[in-house]
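re: ur msg from earlier - yeah i can do the zinc ion complex, just paste it... oh wait u already did. ok heres what im feeding in:
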Amino acid sequence: MATSAVCPATAIAQGVPVDTIMTTVPQVSTTVVKPKPKVLKGKDVKVVYKVKTKDPVVFITIDDGSTVTESLAKYLDRNKVPVTTFAVSVTLWRHREWFRARKNMTFENHTWNHAHMTLISEAQRKHEVCGASQVARNVAKESPMYFRPPGGSFNKKVIDTVAKCGMKYLVMWNVEADGGVVRMSGRAKLEPGDIILMHYVPSLEKSLVHLMNEIKRAGLRPALLRDYLS
Ligand SMILES: [Zn+2]
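and the outut:
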């Protein structure tokens, strides 16, 4: 019988002979203090609309996750398009096999079910954000690093929740590229560091083809946010 894992008091109570009980206490230094994992506060969270970089890169971010197709998978894989996905948990889980099969894609936090974050209680906010990180961990085996609020709505309370759920960045966007149109306010070309918002809708593949042409035209290439924002 292995007694080393049994507490001596329990073992004695169970009638195990005293000479077979481990009685030595492992030496533990009292001077070594394990650093506590850092608990993030609202002030630690940065809100980002565009990444500061001189590299010729832009960031394709795709939200929600309701429509995914084999054709889209082929396009992304063939062109090795790096994508930062902000799918809601409900669709990330529903299409988990499709998402898991994508290379060059990271899975970030866009809430559990697209709640309007400034209109719900603290408990609901925590469920929407921390719960979504848990689902992403189940699907992708790693924690989201970024939060994107549905509809772009956030306030200080939302930022506090993002911190409590362990993320340092609230990621917005400065360019939109749905419906085959690239919308940039006040300029005609994409610029390094642009964060581009798209959605998993039926027109996504067509929008991506157009966007990739615009990216090339500006002398840029798409990159993963995680390579620039950590
Ligand atoms: Zn959304």
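cool cool. Strands lie at 46-48, 57-64, 83-87, 105-107, 146-147, 169-171, 175-176, 183-184, 195-199, 221-223. ping me if u need the other ligands too
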